[in-house]
TrEMBL record:
It comes from the Bacteria. It is found in: Cytoplasm. It comes from Congregibacter brevis. This is 1,6-anhydro-N-acetylmuramyl-L-alanine amidase AmpD. SMART domains: Ami_2.
Protein backbone atom coordinates (compact mmCIF):
# COMPACT_ATOMS: atom_id res chain seq x y z
CA UNK A 1 0.00 0.00 0.00
CA UNK A 2 1.37 3.40 -0.96
CA UNK A 3 2.09 6.06 1.62
CA UNK A 4 0.08 9.27 1.74
CA UNK A 5 3.06 11.20 0.32
CA UNK A 6 3.12 9.02 -2.80
CA UNK A 7 -0.65 8.92 -3.19
CA UNK A 8 -2.45 11.57 -5.24
CA UNK A 9 -5.71 11.15 -3.34
CA UNK A 10 -7.64 9.45 -6.17
CA UNK A 11 -8.96 5.91 -5.82
CA UNK A 12 -8.07 3.83 -8.85
CA UNK A 13 -11.19 1.70 -8.58
CA UNK A 14 -13.60 4.65 -8.43
CA UNK A 15 -15.36 6.13 -11.42
CA UNK A 16 -13.66 9.51 -11.83
CA UNK A 17 -15.64 12.66 -12.54
CA UNK A 18 -13.35 15.58 -11.58
CA UNK A 19 -15.10 18.66 -10.22
CA UNK A 20 -13.71 22.18 -10.51
CA UNK A 21 -15.14 22.97 -7.08
CA UNK A 22 -12.24 22.42 -4.71
CA UNK A 23 -9.18 24.13 -3.26
CA UNK A 24 -6.20 23.34 -1.04
CA UNK A 25 -6.56 22.34 2.58
CA UNK A 26 -5.05 24.95 4.93
CA UNK A 27 -3.48 22.18 7.04
CA UNK A 28 -3.42 18.75 5.37
CA UNK A 29 -2.23 17.12 8.59
CA UNK A 30 -5.53 18.07 10.27
CA UNK A 31 -7.58 15.70 8.07
CA UNK A 32 -9.36 13.36 10.48
CA UNK A 33 -13.12 13.43 9.82
CA UNK A 34 -15.53 11.65 7.48
CA UNK A 35 -18.87 13.32 6.79
CA UNK A 36 -21.83 11.29 5.47
CA UNK A 37 -24.42 13.17 3.41
CA UNK A 38 -27.36 12.32 1.22
CA UNK A 39 -28.44 13.85 -2.05
CA UNK A 40 -30.99 13.22 -4.78
CA UNK A 41 -31.74 15.41 -7.79
CA UNK A 42 -34.44 16.29 -8.47
CA UNK A 43 -35.36 15.67 -4.82
CA UNK A 44 -36.47 12.06 -4.35
CA UNK A 45 -35.34 11.01 -7.83
CA UNK A 46 -32.46 8.59 -8.40
CA UNK A 47 -30.24 7.72 -11.33
CA UNK A 48 -30.76 11.00 -13.19
CA UNK A 49 -27.09 12.01 -13.56
CA UNK A 50 -27.97 15.39 -12.05
CA UNK A 51 -25.72 14.94 -9.01
CA UNK A 52 -22.66 14.62 -11.22
CA UNK A 53 -23.83 17.62 -13.23
CA UNK A 54 -24.28 19.69 -10.07
CA UNK A 55 -20.79 18.90 -8.81
CA UNK A 56 -19.30 19.69 -12.24
CA UNK A 57 -21.25 22.96 -12.72
CA UNK A 58 -23.13 21.62 -15.75
CA UNK A 59 -26.60 21.17 -14.23
CA UNK A 60 -29.44 22.63 -16.31
CA UNK A 61 -31.46 24.19 -13.51
CA UNK A 62 -34.14 25.48 -15.88
CA UNK A 63 -35.58 22.07 -16.75
CA UNK A 64 -37.16 21.42 -13.34
CA UNK A 65 -38.52 24.01 -10.91
CA UNK A 66 -37.06 22.11 -7.95
CA UNK A 67 -33.56 22.75 -9.29
CA UNK A 68 -33.89 26.52 -9.67
CA UNK A 69 -32.43 27.28 -6.23
CA UNK A 70 -29.23 25.49 -7.29
CA UNK A 71 -28.50 27.94 -10.12
CA UNK A 72 -24.93 29.20 -9.80
CA UNK A 73 -24.19 27.04 -6.75
CA UNK A 74 -20.63 25.71 -6.65
CA UNK A 75 -20.47 22.60 -4.47
CA UNK A 76 -18.75 19.24 -4.52
CA UNK A 77 -18.04 16.18 -2.47
CA UNK A 78 -15.13 13.81 -2.56
CA UNK A 79 -17.33 10.78 -3.24
CA UNK A 80 -20.81 9.70 -4.30
CA UNK A 81 -22.22 6.21 -3.73
CA UNK A 82 -25.27 5.63 -5.91
CA UNK A 83 -28.20 3.31 -5.15
CA UNK A 84 -26.36 0.36 -6.75
CA UNK A 85 -23.23 0.96 -4.67
CA UNK A 86 -21.23 2.43 -7.56
CA UNK A 87 -18.51 4.76 -6.30
CA UNK A 88 -17.72 8.04 -8.09
CA UNK A 89 -14.95 10.40 -7.02
CA UNK A 90 -15.05 14.14 -7.75
CA UNK A 91 -12.18 15.62 -5.72
CA UNK A 92 -8.83 14.25 -4.57
CA UNK A 93 -8.86 13.33 -0.89
CA UNK A 94 -5.81 15.54 -0.48
CA UNK A 95 -7.82 18.59 -1.56
CA UNK A 96 -10.74 20.34 0.11
CA UNK A 97 -14.12 19.62 -1.43
CA UNK A 98 -17.00 22.03 -0.80
CA UNK A 99 -19.55 19.77 0.90
CA UNK A 100 -20.04 20.89 4.50
CA UNK A 101 -20.85 24.59 4.19
CA UNK A 102 -21.13 26.54 7.43
CA UNK A 103 -20.19 23.87 9.95
CA UNK A 104 -18.45 23.09 13.21
CA UNK A 105 -17.31 20.13 15.29
CA UNK A 106 -16.31 20.80 18.87
CA UNK A 107 -14.16 23.91 18.86
CA UNK A 108 -13.32 23.63 15.15
CA UNK A 109 -15.21 25.44 12.40
CA UNK A 110 -15.14 25.12 8.59
CA UNK A 111 -15.28 21.32 8.55
CA UNK A 112 -14.36 21.23 4.85
CA UNK A 113 -10.82 22.03 6.00
CA UNK A 114 -10.33 18.73 7.82
CA UNK A 115 -12.92 16.32 6.41
CA UNK A 116 -13.76 14.05 3.51
CA UNK A 117 -17.32 14.26 2.21
CA UNK A 118 -19.19 11.14 1.14
CA UNK A 119 -22.59 11.55 -0.51
CA UNK A 120 -25.10 8.70 -0.58
CA UNK A 121 -27.75 8.88 -3.26
CA UNK A 122 -30.85 8.99 -1.12
CA UNK A 123 -33.20 10.94 1.10
CA UNK A 124 -33.59 11.36 4.85
CA UNK A 125 -36.64 9.09 4.99
CA UNK A 126 -36.09 6.37 2.37
CA UNK A 127 -34.07 3.30 3.35
CA UNK A 128 -30.59 3.12 1.88
CA UNK A 129 -29.65 0.08 -0.18
CA UNK A 130 -27.51 -2.78 1.18
CA UNK A 131 -25.03 -2.13 -1.64
CA UNK A 132 -24.58 1.42 -0.37
CA UNK A 133 -23.70 0.30 3.15
CA UNK A 134 -21.24 -2.25 1.76
CA UNK A 135 -19.64 0.33 -0.54
CA UNK A 136 -19.47 2.93 2.23
CA UNK A 137 -17.82 0.54 4.67
CA UNK A 138 -15.30 -0.58 2.05
CA UNK A 139 -14.51 3.03 1.16
CA UNK A 140 -13.98 4.02 4.79
CA UNK A 141 -11.79 1.01 5.42
CA UNK A 142 -9.63 1.81 2.38
CA UNK A 143 -9.37 5.52 3.16
CA UNK A 144 -8.20 4.71 6.68
CA UNK A 145 -5.40 2.60 5.22
CA UNK A 146 -4.15 5.52 3.14
CA UNK A 147 -4.92 8.21 5.70
CA UNK A 148 -4.46 6.70 9.19
CA UNK A 149 -5.55 9.94 10.83
CA UNK A 150 -9.10 9.13 9.68
CA UNK A 151 -9.13 6.10 11.98
CA UNK A 152 -8.59 8.41 14.96
CA UNK A 153 -11.33 10.85 14.04
CA UNK A 154 -15.12 10.74 13.91
CA UNK A 155 -17.54 9.59 11.26
CA UNK A 156 -20.43 12.05 11.41
CA UNK A 157 -23.54 13.02 9.53
CA UNK A 158 -23.95 16.39 7.88
CA UNK A 159 -26.60 17.08 10.53
CA UNK A 160 -23.98 16.64 13.26
CA UNK A 161 -21.79 19.44 11.95
CA UNK A 162 -24.55 21.75 10.66
CA UNK A 163 -27.25 21.23 13.27
CA UNK A 164 -30.43 23.15 12.56
CA UNK A 165 -29.37 23.73 8.96
CA UNK A 166 -28.97 20.18 7.62
CA UNK A 167 -30.74 16.91 8.42
CA UNK A 168 -28.87 14.38 6.29
CA UNK A 169 -28.19 11.51 6.14
CA UNK A 170 -31.48 11.44 8.05
CA UNK A 171 -33.42 8.99 10.16
CA UNK A 172 -33.27 6.40 7.39
CA UNK A 173 -29.52 5.99 7.81
CA UNK A 174 -28.64 2.99 9.97
CA UNK A 175 -25.49 3.89 11.92
CA UNK A 176 -25.40 0.48 13.64
CA UNK A 177 -25.41 -1.21 10.27
CA UNK A 178 -22.46 0.93 9.16
CA UNK A 179 -20.52 -0.01 12.31
CA UNK A 180 -21.22 -3.71 11.66
CA UNK A 181 -20.21 -3.34 8.00
CA UNK A 182 -16.96 -1.65 9.03
CA UNK A 183 -16.17 -4.48 11.40
CA UNK A 184 -16.84 -6.99 8.61
CA UNK A 185 -14.67 -5.05 6.13
CA UNK A 186 -11.81 -4.88 8.62
CA UNK A 187 -11.87 -8.66 8.98
CA UNK A 188 -12.03 -9.44 5.27
CA UNK A 189 -8.82 -10.34 3.45
CA UNK A 190 -10.41 -9.43 0.13
CA UNK A 191 -10.87 -5.84 1.27
CA UNK A 192 -7.33 -5.68 2.64
CA UNK A 193 -5.90 -6.81 -0.66
CA UNK A 194 -8.04 -4.60 -2.89
CA UNK A 195 -6.03 -1.99 -4.79
CA UNK A 196 -7.21 1.60 -4.59
Amino acid sequence: MSSQNAWDGWLKRARLCPSPNFNSRPDPSALDMLVVHNISLPPGCFGTGDIESLFCNTLDCSRDSSLEELEGLEVSSHFLIDRDGVLTQFVSCLDRAWHAGVSSWGSRTNCNDFSIGIELEGTDSRAYEPAQYEALAQLIFELREYLPSLARGPIVGHSDIASGRKTDPGEAFDWARLRNSLAHAAGSDTHKQREI
